Amino acid sequence: MTDKQTLLIVEDDPNLAEMLSEYFRAQGYRILTSAWGEEAIQTCVQRLPHLVLLDIHLPDIDGYEVAQRLHGHRRTKSIPLIFLTEKKNRQNRLQGLQLGAVDYVTKPFDLEELQLRVRNALQRARLDRVVHPVTGLPEGPLVDEHLARVLQSAEWGILLVSLRGLDEFRNTYGFMASDDVLRAVGAILDETVFEVGTPEDLAGHLSSEAFVIITSLPHLYSLQEQIQTRLSHYIRYFYPLKDRPGAGEAQHSLTPAIEVLLPRSADFADLSAFKKAVLRSRSN
After folding, report:
1. Strand 51-55 and strand 6-10: pairing?
2. Which of 20, 62, 144, 270 has its Cβ near the most Cβ atoms within 10 Å?
């Protein structure tokens, strides 16, 4: 597995939870665990796992309610769920599928079979994921297709755009406010590319909170300048009125970060190597 994907295992049986954790960790997944439904919901909102293995019988609320609440929340509605349960009758299975579960596995189960079901669910989710759920900009396969085409080209350049301090902002004002910021930034980028770039240019996501713009070299630096100017101007309006800094003040934590990349100036073996190098450098 090239990029580690995160599984949340929601299971109140500690022995089964430990067994599943060790098995899937050995398969190359990053593992989160929870024994409680409410805790699982909060973990999903905060960490956005790629998939949830969800037991139906939990000490506080059952897995059906967990599923209903996750799929009713705009931030978590696209997370694939696989139910784990001892209930084998048709009505229970239908109830789980009606709540949006992608699969329903009864105990006892074969670990290898479960691993294949997880792999297949993640593959389907990757194929379905073509636009970002908050900004509506392209992500996943659509962006990868464009990146793969330009990585070896001398005629194209890439802008990586993000906001430093977004985690601090989210901790202060909450997820809905940070989603509003992402939505606003996405709109600014999309509009700027439309006005300054060409129809062949692309504004999308390299990761959930990192934007990428792929453009021809003649437009690269004018786009960078316009985006820097617009984001610097609008950042103060991302804050609630009571906390909004005055014009020219720098009392906020959000700061635009724009990096120019010329693909031919670096040696990337393939798209995966490029994405890993970029994301690693931005996390340092």
Report:
1. parallel
2. 20
Say how many C-beta atoms besides its own lie within 10 A of residue 141's C-beta.
13
pLDDT in tens, 43-89: 998 788 899 999 988 999 988 999 989 988 767 888 899 988 876 66
Q: pLDDT by residue (tens digit) across 137-173?
A: 888 877 888 888 887 777 888 999 999 999 999 889 9
Q: Which two tokens stand for residue 43?
A: 């973990």
147 and 273 belong to one structural domain:
yes
pTM across the whole model:
0.59
Domain that holds residue 90: 6-128
238: in domain: yes
In a domain, 134, yes or no: no
Instruction: Give burial (CB, 10 Å; 0-12/13-18/19+) of 45.
Output: middle
Q: Are strands 156-164 and 211-216 parallel, antiparallel or unpaired?
A: antiparallel
- Asked whether residue 44 falls in the same domain as residue 84, the answer is yes
